What we know:
alpha+beta; single chain; 11% strand; disordered N terminus
Amino acid sequence: ESPRARARSVLHLPCWNSQRFAARVDPVIMTGPLQRPLGFAPARAILLQFDQAKEECKDPSLLGAWIPILQQYGPALIQQCESAEALALSLVTEWLEQYMLAARDDRKEKAQQIASFFASYEEHRSHSLGIDRESARQQGVVIDDLESDQDLQDAVLSVHHATMHTLAGPALKIVENHLGRTYAKVAQQIALQMPMGPGMLVGPPGGQVPGIQPGAPA
């Protein structure tokens, strides 16, 4: 499992509602936790593409290439993208001020700086690109080094491995608190039996049904 694969579930939006992070030496802090995905793409990518389309569609010869793409846009997609970005920035800024940066005099300005950095699609380009902990520290994120506390590192890795093992099964989402209370979203698996049509024969491996010669009509 690569560092980036490990990191994908580390810093989703609710994780900013905390006083500090714990990180290992490999890149476990993800860029773009505020790059809110809307279905098939990040909100900022959709907005940038729409701006590109408006500019290029001034040339009538390019309309044929853009129309199939623009036809996939829902009636409120652009507004949803703008609202999703604004909400994410607002929530993370508020949580940073209230928790991680509460003791700083410049918490409002610093919170806005951190939120803007992690939300920058133009800088990071991908939600799956890893940021190492030193780069995050330079932005003002409070981080504890996991390897400096072996007991903490063992506990964190145990939770991580147990979670990955659980998600390898039918579980799609897990929310658990310190009281041992758990909410898990599980995928339903439905077995479908394919109907047998007229003349469809099921035989042993090798394809030959006893009593029927190869090439003879069934």
